[in-house]
Design a protein that fits this description.
By secondary structure, the protein is mainly beta. It has a single domain, classed as monomeric porin ompg (Porin, Beta Barrel), CATH 2.40.160.40. Helices cover about 5% and strands about 55% of the residues. The protein contains 1 helix and 14 strands; from the N terminus they run αββββββββββββββ. A 12-stranded antiparallel beta barrel has the order 1-2-3-6-7-8-9-10-11-12-13-14. The longest helix has 21 residues, at about 5-25. It is globular, with a radius of gyration of 19 Å.
């Protein structure tokens, strides 16, 4: 179990990084940085551009095997900050500032000791935050481009509240994209190094992926569809590091720097939950021309 001091430090670090991105990018703007629901299109971003977004999501029958809990999960606010820190390099910070789980089923003997406050059938906690950088030095703003993706998930949540794992996970992947006037396809494929929550000195290396296709239906409307997830390389995965996957589709309306989107998702694994709905609003801040 992580100490209160360590947890406060990790929460504080995530908040400072989110604030740093927002402050650095605060300038008059036009919406130019295309926003993907799954993968940031680094080839479309100008140096200095940024995006600040907030949203809400609701997932039915979310499953948390480490705590032995399952139920409907609501996350609000979900935060997403992306900043083009250089030519074709995008830094992202994203996560849920607050999550609430309505507990519908629970194991009689969970793998971790749970907080007694969960006895009322609800769990509330901060979500884990992820720091990621994507870069595409090969190719141009149109056609094929390639690069890499590095993501680190910080264990801000408390595993005694049922929704956290108290682990630090790292994803290393190759990034590929193809862009035209009406279509944009982006994906990364690599490995996620998952720390085992309750097994000392254990980890699970999983194949990880994220793929999305965007169609710019008009200057103001676009549709997207994609999938992301991971597949364990072990026949028996350490508890909490099993397969995870989801299919997503969304629609986005843009006007100037403002973007409003809504989408649905469907989990393809037990840990992915059943159907989910999400909505958000984002503001794009212009960078160097």
């Amino acid at each position: 179990m992580q100490s209160p001091g360590a947890r406060r430090f990790r929460v504080g670090l995530s908040c400072v990084l989110c604030g740093a991105v927002a402050v650095t990018a605060a300038m008059p703007a036009e919406a130019q940085l295309a926003r993907d629901a799954l993968v940031q299109p680094v080839g479309a971003a100008r140096s200095g551009e940024a995006l600040i977004g907030v949203g809400v999501s609701h997932t039915a029958n979310a499953d948390f095997p480490l705590a032995g809990l399952a139920g409907d999960l609501t996350a609000f606010p979900e935060l997403h900050a992306a900043w083009a820190i250089g030519p074709r390099v995008v830094l992202e910070v994203k996560g849920a500032a607050r999550k609430a789980l309505s507990i519908e089923t629970r194991d009689s003997i969970p793998a971790v000791d749970l907080d007694r406050s969960l006895d009322d059938g609800m769990s509330r906690d901060v979500g884990d935050f992820e720091l990621a950088v994507s870069f595409a030095p090969i190719g141009g703003s149109t056609g094929f481009s390639a690069g890499g993706h590095l993501g680190v998930r910080l264990p801000n949540s408390d595993e005694t509240r049922g929704m956290g794992l108290n682990t630090t996970d790292v994803t290393i992947a190759g990034l590929f994209s193809w862009n035209s006037a009406r279509w944009h396809a982006t994906g990364w494929f690599g490995v996620s190094i998952l720390e085992a929550p309750i097994e000392p000195f254990e980890q699970n290396d999983a194949f990880a992926w994220a793929v999305e296709t965007l169609w710019y239906a008009s200057p103001n409307w676009r549709l997207s569809a994609g999938t992301r997830g991971r597949a364990s390389t072990r026949r028996v995965s350490p508890l909490g590091t099993g397969d995870l996957g989801e299919l997503r589709a969304s629609v986005t309306w843009r006007h100037g720097p403002l973007a409003i989107d809504a989408g649905i998702g469907h989990g393809t694994t037990v840990m992915g939950g059943d159907w989910s709905v999400r909505a958000g609003v984002a503001w794009t801040l212009a960078g160097n021309r």
